[in-house]
Amino acid sequence: MSDTVRPPSKQRLRLWLRMLSAHRGIEAHLRERLRETHDSTLPRFDVLSALDRHRDGLRMSDLSARLKVSNGNVTGIVERLASEGLIERSQVDGDRRAMLVRLTPAGIERFAAMAADHETWVNDLLAPFSAGELDTLITLLDRIGDHPA
């Protein structure tokens, strides 16, 4: 059946599967490169990235919410990054139960190297697209959020 004859619901399902496949392929490549080049994982990169955007630090609960993962998932990663001297933890004033985490100078330096490589890898993976095609894809994908289910 040609694409023009398929019902829109089948085309939308086909698009979703293509997007999922592309996402998985890119993610797998990035995971492998982070492991090989920086002896790190994508979740660790994500935690460092969030903290790099919030240099004053984030509460653990805010970090979990931004990453859309459970507090338990973040706790283990934060403990390992702290033991490596890449982040520091401190109590939140006025809330004994809350913990604030932020990058250390070593963490800032380490993340900068990882982020530079990450940008290069993504650039290489998406190099077949022209600037105009990238703008079109971004515009089209942005429209997905305009119509929540």
TrEMBL record:
Highest taxon, organism lineage: Bacteria
Family annotation (InterPro entries): HTH_MarR-typ, MarR/SlyA-like, Tscrpt_reg_MarR-type_CS, WH-like_DNA-bd_sf, WH_DNA-bd_sf
Pfam families in the record: MarR
SMART domains for this protein: HTH_MARR
Domain annotation HTH marR-type: ranges: 12-146
PROSITE patterns: HTH_MARR_1, HTH_MARR_2
Keywords: DNA-binding, Transcription, Transcription regulation
Protein name: MarR family winged helix-turn-helix transcriptional regulator
UniProt lineage: Bacteria, Pseudomonadati, Pseudomonadota, Alphaproteobacteria, Rhodobacterales
